[in-house]
Specification:
This protein has 312 residues and is of the alpha/beta class. It has helices at 13-23, 63-79, 108-119, 148-158, 173-183, 226-237, 254-259, 291-303, and strands at 4-8, 30-34, 40-44, 52-56, 84-89, 123-127, 142-145, 163-167, 186-194, 201-207, 214-222, 242-250, 267-271, 285-288. The structure holds ribose-5-phosphate. Ribose-5-phosphate binds next to strand 11 and helix 6.
């Protein structure tokens, strides 16, 4: 069996270190930096010939720089004769550009899949894509993990007396239903509208009953926080007793720190796929680490074990 090697760029070193800690192996030495002309340079500082190489890099802000780092790392690994290259992408940037939903727009999630393949990746490992269909943009094997059981397990420990899981739109209902099933509780769905491309969302109405309930909103990602705050207001207006907000990918644009830092939210729960820009001051937060799940999946990929069994 080829030896395993794990490297990271500059997107989220703490996550890569946590994965390596779980795997009980060192994070590989690799230089990834920009020259003054903004050209990115990569150099592996150890031999990776014929090794099973995993490159951990979420596509997080500054998104285009982190994406280029990943692509150039893949190219460098290929030219260094790595035996196999797995792009480990805890957050797949541009994932919301997954369809042509307006005239004359791109499908950037597909374009990025092409980039990753052309650069030379042999496999991809990721978690909770914005839309599962993005898997099909790749012609190489892709394993998509899910953090929904981790979210459900956490909320289970809170022993909320009357929980209802809430999806922020119809697109998120499948994931929210999964969490509701695991918690054996009801599901409600917000009817959310976006009018144009200005990043503003409005919660219009609610399908389901929340009066007197402890609501747990589940979404795949939070960017501006607009979807969440308008959903929290709607649930409060409809008589919810408390509102917990959760997401898998805490992208948190600067505006989100103003909108979400409110005592209207009982707790803000997210995973560590994305590094935080800054801490919150008022709202209680909880970070659930996905590093063990990624470490287990990487070990299984390396040894030819089943990744699906992680979710049985
Ligand atoms: C949208 O389809 C996603 O599931 C999230 O609801 C969205 O990304 C949240 O964006 P924002 O925080 O900017 O409202």
């Amino acid at each position: 069996m080829r030896e395993m090697a794990v490297f990271t760029g500059n997107a989220h070193r703490a996550f890569a270190e946590a994965v390596c800690q779980h795997l009980e192996m060192p994070l590989g030495e690799c230089e990834v930096f920009e020259f003054s002309n903004e050209n990115i340079f990569v150099k592996f500082l150890e031999n990776i010939r014929e090794r099973d190489v995993f490159l951990i890099q979420p596509i997080v802000p500054p998104v285009n720089t982190r994406l280029m780092e990943l692509l150039i790392m893949i190219d460098a690994a290929k030219r260094a004769s790595a035996g196999r290259i797995t792009a480990v992408i805890p957050y797949y940037g541009y994932g919301r550009s997954d369809k042509k939903d307006q005239p004359r727009v791109p499908i950037t999630a597909r374009l990025i899949a092409n980039f990753i393949e052309v650069a030379g990746a042999n496999r991809v490992l990721t978690v909770d894509l914005h839309a599962g269909q993005i898997q099909g943009f790749f012609n190489i094997p892709l394993d998509e993990l899910t953090a929904l059981p981790l979210l459900a397990d956490y909320f289970h420990t809170l022993r909320l007396p009357a929980p209802t899981v809430v999806a922020t739109d119809v697109g998120g209902a499948k994931g929210a239903r999964d969490v509701a099933r695991r918690l054996d509780c009801d599901l409600a769905i917000v009817d959310k509208r976006r009018t144009d491309n200005n990043e503003r969302a409005e919660a219009m109405t609610l399908i389901g009953e929340v009066e007197g309930r402890d609501c747990i909103i589940v979404d795949d990602e939070i960017l501006t926080g607009g979807t969440m705050v308008s959903s929290v207001r709607l649930l409060r207006d409809r008589g919810a007793r408390s509102v917990y907000v959760s997401c898998i990918h805490p992208i948190f644009a600067p505006r989100a720190y103003d909108l979400l830092d409110t005592k209207e939210i009982a707790e803000l729960v997210f995973t560590d796929t994305v590094p935080l820009r800054q801490p919150f001051e008022h709202v209680p937060t909880r970070t659930l680490s996905l590093a063990p799940l990624f470490g287990d999946a990487m070990h299984r990929i390396h040894t030819g074990g089943s990744v699906g069994e992680l979710f049985l």
